[in-house]
Amino acid sequence: MSAGHRIFRNIRALAAAKAATMASGLVTAAWTARVLGPDSFGVLGFGTSLMAYAALFVNMGLSTYAIREIARDRDRNDHRDRAAELSEHVLTLRTVLALLVGAVYAVFILSLDKPMEVKAVLLMQAVQLLGNALVLDFVYQATEKMGVIATREIGTSIGSMLLVFLLVRGPEDAITAAAITGGSITVNALIMIGRFRRDFGTLRPRIDLKVWRRILTAATPMAVGVFAWAIFTHLDVVMLGFLAPHTEVGWYSAAVKIQTLANLVGNIVMNAFLPQLAASYGEIGPMRDRMRAYAGVMLAVGGLVIAGGFALAPVILGTLFGDAYAPATLALRLLMLASAVVYANMILGNPLLVWHRQTGYMIAMLSGGALNALLNIWWIPRYGIEGAAMATFTAELAATVAIAWIHRRAVGELYVGIAARAMLCAGAAIGTAFALAHVGAPFFDRMPALVHFVAGSAAMVAVYALVAVLTGLVRPKRLRRLTSATA
């Protein structure tokens, strides 16, 4: 099977999963936000961001390391045995880390100056640590069996949605909502272990301190880079949790949910391309070819998603979360601008992690993360949730500029032409949405927000597609050339 065929097969599998998880995730988030209200929803958002940091100390870059090593060993005769052995080491090590991190997290939460009801919700969310430790996605991503990952993600999202509908009915059920999320991840991770036993054999705990030291030494720079990335994606909510009322955290958490879904589309493409980008390392021609294809797909998809989120921000918030979350409109638009930079960062930065250039990526991201922290401290007290969003955008931009310099040294290109075409398409789509909102205001004001959302989305997609073809951002010949490329 050609490299291109594998890439698009992976995208198809992941896209199917993400379509299901995005749909169920949107419904779950909308239901939870409405029944809990901004205050309790803000507590959940605060805890989710704290958990994201705790989970980083459980993973420690081990997934990225395992993907790189397993993907590069695919041509070896003993590939299956080596993948199973590495998976056993990774799962055992992560389980030990989950227990240690969970204990530290519990002590930290109990020391906070928060009501006991809030602490109970935050402690319940720690169940996610065990689930994250046991997830085996890295094996199936490295071996390009994305259908297995898709099945797990669909099961987790749909199971969580059904349980939330049944059990979460009011603000007093915040702790139940926290338990559902962590429990669903853990149960699906255990089911995936059963699938692994069928594909690779029985998983056994492996404790070898020498091997663990070698793995952690190689994975730590990746972990630091990912930790720095998490500063951008979660620090704003964490700091709002300490510096602002929970109601404002709830508004901002709703905006972050939408931004996360926008970024999720890019993650589908990135995860599908990453094994092929890793395999091309060392040969500048294949590296450039794969990167041009990667950048083209990422920017074509990202331009539409970001344009839609920016132009339709108030309509999206109203449709999903209700009028109580309208104050998050400006913050959401700022976060969508930050997402545009996130897409650039995924294009230019993530390949560096599988090209043995993780140190430069790490330094750039840590520097941007430090800037993000300083800006949040400065701007949140002055500008509230808009200040948090501005801090995220500014720091993302600073880090991405540094990463662009590193990437250009690696492959000699920055894909400026592709980016310019994507910006033109996005601008045309945004202009269409604003014009439609102005002309159709008398009609849309009398209708539910969903009507405006559907009409605006349809108009934007049509205009974006037309301009994308006219500018050459989307070229059928290029896609056919990619799918016929040799592995």
Task: Explain what you see.
Residues 482-487 have low confidence and may be disordered. Helix 1 (3-59) crosses helix 7 and helix 12 (313-320) packs across helix 18. This protein has helices at residues 3-59, 62-72, 79-111, 116-124, 127-134, 137-142, 146-167, 174-200, 209-243, 246-279, 284-311, 313-320, 329-348, 350-353, 358-411, 416-439, 441-444, 449-471, 476-483. It has one domain. It has 487 residues and is an all-alpha fold. The chain contains 19 helices and no strands.
Query: Helix content range of the residues, please?
Result: over 70%
Largest sheet: none
Low-confidence stretches: 482-487
Computed CA radius of gyration, to the nearest angstrom: 22 Å
Class from secondary-structure proportions = mainly alpha
- Tally of distinct domains: 1
Mean pLDDT: 83
Give the terminus-to-terminus CA distance: 7 Å
What is the chain-wise order of helices and strands? HHHHHHHHHHHHHHHHHHH
SS elements, strand count: 0
Beta-strand portion reads under 5%
Shape: globular
Count of DSSP H/I helices: 19
Subcellular location: Membrane
Main location: membrane
Pfam families: Polysacc_synt (PF01943)
Membrane topology: Multi-pass membrane protein
